[in-house]
Amino acid sequence: MSLKGKAYIVGAYEHPTRKAPDTSLAQLHAEVAKGALDDAGLTKNDVDGYFCASGDTPGLGGLSMIEYMGLNVRHIDATDTGGSSYLVHVGHALEAIAAGRCNVALITLAGRPRSEGMQTGTAPRMGNVQQPDVQFEFPYGPAIANMYAMVARRHMHEFGTTSEQLAWVKVAASHHAQYNPHAMLQKVVTVEDVVNSPMVADPLHRLDCCVISDGGGALVLAKPEIARSLARPKVKIIGVGEANKIQGGGLALDLTYSAGRRSGKAAFEMAGVTPADIRYASIYDSFTITVIVQLEDLGFCEKGAGGKFVADGNLISGIGRLPFNTDGGGLCSNHPGNRGGMTKIIEAVRQARGEAHPKVQVKNHDIVLAHGTGGSLGTRHVGATVILERE
Amino acid sequence: MSEKIYSTVPPTPGSEPYWEGAKAGKLLIKWCRDCSKPHHYPRGVCPHCLSTHLDWKQASGTGEIYSFSIMRAAKPVYVIAYVTLDEGVTMMTNIVDADFAGIKIGQKVKVVFKPSEDDGKLACFTPV
Fold it and tell me: With b meaning 16 or more CB within 10 Å and e meaning fewer, what string describes A35-57?
């Protein structure tokens, strides 16, 4: 049985805050839930499936948030794959709805790393000491930024990718962010601005990195019968894929590709479309290099050609072949809870509905894609891909 | 400037020989008796075939840089790297005792042990 079209995204909401020192993590989760349900025209009493990532949700799995929000559900999934979790959840909720395990699925994300003063990308974070890799890796100082930097360094070595090509990803994001009043960085930047910004983890500069923000987002998915009864534009889920990537016990380390190679293939096969059919893509942009690697792995260009593909404004709406992250993305607008997957889907839904900012809305398109990588591009991660169609 | 003292994470059951080896100046790699392959980081179960018939063997201690990054945002600045050992496994490490500006992918390196907390030693690499 194909899952294609067995559920719709009927509600989407991004919290407008980027700094929430006076709002609890639980309240942020509940506020985005309310926002997405209001957007759908549903209430919390309609929700019978709850999806969250255990790592950003206070309490055991989803249990505390379910009680906090007063839900009564019959399907719970607290799968955590880092920033790609919410893309994974869309796939899992699609399965659950198709199987009759729930009719209306709520997915929430929230986080407050900015208020908590977290040095997200530059300070190594030690996991639980039972995590089997920690004792062999943490002493060497693997922060987020330098792990992604090693991906960039290897990509440059193998394919001749340049810092200027990486910079074009940020330039494109900034062109879009100027129209987003909630974006943290609304100033349009140039390639020179990026390559002249301070070096964080060589070869990644400060402007190659995403923002650190508080906030969150939520989605509501529903079975087709319910979606058709609602007043909002119909956004059908036509393709999903998830996949992991490992290092093969140290014998197969290859930093030049990501799990998107497999998750993208699965999603395109389910949807029955190809990259050539996609006119808008939300691509997780923790760093500029993240976008280049994932675009290659999804098949928007050949492996190694990502630097050339993104150059000269090819990701800018109204100018390039593949407008991306028209909200400004994680690079300029929002990276709530250090987890970028949720905002990727939300902007893809806005594009599919025709509700993106008029200056960045892509015209004449029905099919959009959202993709993300959770964990570290440089060690172990899970990629997830979602393809949506405006009905 | 005093020498950097690296963090020590407590060993987990079965990993003690790796850290005892480091203290004695030996880089130990796990090899599987059933599938004859090495792996790293060391595990109690072979990630290639899930066998528990594993042996510690001393690595040659030489290899080459697969990738690296100079962490400019840190004080003091340090260089994280993946080094592919002559035995075929790639390990996360730091490049030390080197002119950072001259570090290159493909560069030959050899193991050097640096002090860590609780009188431990940590395997780092330096250009040959």
Answer: bbbebbebeeeebbbbbbbebbb
